[in-house]
Specification:
DNA damage; globular; Rossmann fold; five-stranded mixed β-barrel; single chain; alpha/beta; nucleotide-binding
């Protein structure tokens, strides 16, 4: 195949050689010219804006632009030969040691003090110093390889901006840059799918120009224009996908689930111990109308914690049950699923006791399906779901498993939608014979423009009111390190709330007491000099013995067995505990109205 005939579909082995193409494929999953063209740099280095070596993390695979400061050769103790140590710096005050084993006198001559280069490898630490062992490197402006090679390096590295690519140990960034240059010089630019009038109206450059400038920018301004065009393409593709999904859903048939006078929903409204807000009534009307149509509802319900989303969702579920169908609610954690189960049983009372003595006339059953259910309880619950006796089914990811079958699934409610992917939502929808209605909820405030981008396939409803009697939330930042007296006052304030009959949360970013996985104990200080994030299992005893001595403390985190988590939450909800020390397992939906205060430790670790 000639260079003129090369396209974005051309295999890389025909352009960069079989050996390099094999490395790109096996380490970076890049197979064609188009794959490589869309493998964009992660950052750009400049001669005057070097990577801050002080910010490197141990274990990180890095590429740094640095200058050789000094070299030293010493004999190795454990084996024959010498060890070459090269100290490089980037002008920020930080240094990095490069180590090369064996007799490599030529490297010492090559890595002369004052030379600039790009060095790639995995950051390790030895005797308190960060280093790269046997790194790959390329020296800038090196003319020892002849005039052609020097010219190539000048073109690649001497410009104002040096692209640094997502790379692998076997395929460093400069190898990727060299391959990109070959592809850009030999492959015709892909056809621009955006018509010229659209590009002009949006002030967007052409696709070919954008792809060239993203890899080989002439200036920061050109790089900005390239990024803007490519970001616009990504956002536009997402929007097209969402609009397509929305139109496909609207064209799909669904079984209408109209409201029924004198049914379960009316009985529930009659026994509600409080009055719905006007926002809840308005959103309820929108949802009721959607459920009554012959096309599946796809609606996002957003509102802050305490705005009453669960009651709105429960009323929609009852309307579906009145119409002869079943409704299910998918929750991200067992704690939240169990809380929904308890809350709905309390709200429904005899309306949730079908088949029992004292059940109401239009009663149904409410079942909970989680991964921690025992074998006997699981068989009983799944039988209730499959027979249709359970009109309302609550659960976690366990609802998605094979073997969970519904008699007539009419409504899927997804709580805390951001915790689930579209695939998980679709997996639950697939358990219905016809596309069911879908209501997704989030307590994370989302600006309308963002919501339209992320949830463009959904209609959007917002609960902006808090139910009567709910107090507004006040937040305060306590600079504990600079003013420890402020932290002491925070603990005293918490004790005052408990003394007034209320409860409180203390939230920590880490569980602690683990030797593996994501909870592995971090080093004493990170590279920025910060201590490890505080852990629940460490903080709880300190509080019990210190500022919260005498209060009833409970501990809750994701590593506890499900029955223990449920017991802790029941105790806290019942008022048997004053303070709950927890991780972000309480982030979504743990609703105890008597808890009036929350202390978030290491709030900066949560992105606050």
């Amino acid at each position: 195949m000639t260079a003129e005939a090369s396209t974005v579909d051309t295999p890389l082995k025909k352009l960069v050689g079989e050996k390099t193409a094999k490395a790109l494929a096996s380490h970076l999953d890049l197979h064609t010219a188009g794959d490589l063209i869309y493998h964009f740099p992660r950052r750009y280095d400049e001669r005057g804006e070097h990577t801050d070596i002080r910010a490197l993390d141990v274990g990180e695979q890095v590429t740094v632009l640095a200058q050789v400061q000094r070299t030293a050769v010493r004999p190795m103790r454990q084996r024959r030969g010498n060890l070459l140590e090269v100290t490089v710096g980037d002008g920020s005050g930080g240094t990095l040691t490069l180590t090369f084993f064996g007799n490599q006198a030529w490297r010492e001559r090559e890595l002369r003090p004052g030379r600039w280069g790009m060095f790639a490898g995995k950051v390790t630490e030895f005797r308190g110093k960060r280093q790269l062992n046997g790194p790959e490197y390329v020296l800038l402006g090196d003319q020892t390889d002849g005039e052609a090679a020097a010219s190539e390096q000048v073109e690649e590295f001497a410009g104002a901006l040096i692209p640094v690519y997502p790379a692998a140990a076997a395929v460093p960034t400069w190898v990727i840059a060299r391959c990109v240059r070959v592809v850009l010089d030999t492959v015709a630019s892909p056809e621009d799918p955006l018509p010229a009038p659209v590009r002009a109206s949006r002030n967007l450059i052409g696709l070919g120009t954008a792809l060239r400038e993203i890899h080989r920018p002439s200036s920061r301004e050109d790089l900005y224009r390239a990024r803007r065009r490519l970001k616009w393409d990504e956002a536009f593709a997402v929007q097209l996908t969402l609009v397509r999904r929305k139109h496909q859903a609207a064209a799909s048939p669904a079984r209408p689930r109209p409201g029924r006078t004198g049914g379960l929903l009316d009985a529930f409204d009659a026994r509600l111990p409080y009055e719905l807000t006007s926002g809840q009534r308005d959103v309820g009307t929108e949802i009721a109308a959607d459920l009554a149509t012959g096309h599946p509802m796809h609606r996002l319900l957003q509102g802050e914690v305490g705005s009453g989303k669960t009651v709105v969702a429960l009323r929609a579920m009852l309307q579906v049950v009145d119409a002869g169908g079943q409704a299910t609610l998918l929750a991200p954690t067992e704690v939240l699923a169990a809380q929904h189960h308890r809350g709905m049983l309390d709200l429904l009372g005899p309306l949730a006791q079908a088949g029992e003595l004292g059940a109401a006339e239009h009663a149904t059953r409410v079942e909970l399906v989680t991964g921690s259910l025992g074998a006997a309880a699981r068989r009983r619950a799944l039988a209730e779901v499959a027979s249709g006796a359970a009109g309302i089914v609550l659960g976690t990811h366990a609802l998605l498993y094979e073997g969970v079958d519904f008699a007539d699934l009419g409504l899927v409610v997804v709580d805390e939608q951001h915790r689930f992917g579209v695939e998980q939502r679709d997996a639950l929808r697939a358990k219905a014979e016809q596309p069911p209605h879908v209501l997704v909820m989030t307590a994370t405030p989302i600006p309308r423009t963002v919501a339209m981008t992320v949830y463009g396939d959904l209609e959007i409803s917002t609960l902006s009111q808090l139910p009567r009697g709910r107090s507004p939330i006040a937040s305060h930042v306590v600079p504990a390190a600079e003013k420890p007296a402020f932290l002491d006052r925070a603990w005293r304030r918490l004790c005052e709330e408990v003394a007034a009959g209320h409860q409180a949360y203390v939230v920590c970013p880490r569980i602690g007491d683990s030797t593996s996985g994501a909870d592995e104990e971090p080093p004493e200080l990170d590279d920025n000099g910060r201590r490890p994030p505080l852990a629940v299992t460490e903080v709880a005893p300190l509080l019990a013995e210190g500022p919260l001595h005498g209060l009833r403390l409970g501990v809750l985190h994701g590593r506890l067995p499900a029955d223990e988590k449920d017991a802790v939450m029941r105790s806290f909800a019942a008022g048997d505990l004053d303070v709950l020390v927890a991780t972000t397992v309480v982030e979504v939906g743990v609703d105890v109205p008597n808890a009036t205060m929350m202390v978030v430790l290491d709030a900066d670790r949560f992105g606050v």
